[in-house]
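Input (structure):
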């Protein structure tokens, strides 16, 4: 699949293969950043670091991340089976004298959903550990509110409330959420892909 993709990428400008490569890029641009994030979580990951606006409650942040992991498990398992079920059908297109784009696309999507499913399960395991829940609850119930202090819940969690992120979120809101300028500044500070973040905002 990688060799076929490289061949399309290196095809002469304006050729049929070059146009197929452009189609592939447009399809790839539709993959949600949440899926890319979950794919990046490997079995070797043993620690989660979360930076969030200081006005948010740490428990809400954990619950949201747990929801992302749980939803990922359900969605990517469903689409993994769907992509695999399409492989026998799309493989029959190999008899045509054209690159078998449907087969390669379904093969890529099956692999992508499998990786995202693995990442969802790993993330869910990290955020659902009972000892972490009890440790965090104890921290949250402390009289000295820890919102404005970073604290580590070994060995799985590092929660980091950020005043800078809070200020950006508070002062750069518009009717549709964060403004484009705020998103760009946040992406620059935290080394995020601006286009992916904006695309995810629109999808949301």
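Output (sequence):
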């Amino acid at each position: 699949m990688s060799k076929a993709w490289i061949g399309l990428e290196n095809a002469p400008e304006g050729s049929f293969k070059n146009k197929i490569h452009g189609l592939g890029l447009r399809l790839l641009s539709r993959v949600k950043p949440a899926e890319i994030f979950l794919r990046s979580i490997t079995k070797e990951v043993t620690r989660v670091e979360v930076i969030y606006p200081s006005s948010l409650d740490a428990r809400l942040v954990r619950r949201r991340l747990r929801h992302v992991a749980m939803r990922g498990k359900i969605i990517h398992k469903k689409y993994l089976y769907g992509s695999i079920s399409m492989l026998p059908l799309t493989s029959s297109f190999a008899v045509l004298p054209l690159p078998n784009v449907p087969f390669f696309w379904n093969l890529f999507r099956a692999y992508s959903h499998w990786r995202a499913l693995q990442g969802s399960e790993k993330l869910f395991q990290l955020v659902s550990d009972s000892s972490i829940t009890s440790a965090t609850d104890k921290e949250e119930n402390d009289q000295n509110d820890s919102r404005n202090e970073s604290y580590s819940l070994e060995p799985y969690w590092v929660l980091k409330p950020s005043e800078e992120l809070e200020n950006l979120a508070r002062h750069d809101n518009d009717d549709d959420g964060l403004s484009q300028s705020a998103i760009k500044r946040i992406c620059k500070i935290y080394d995020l892909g601006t286009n992916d973040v904006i695309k995810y905002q629109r999808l949301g």
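Notes: The chain has a mean pLDDT of 78. Residues 1-30 form one domain.
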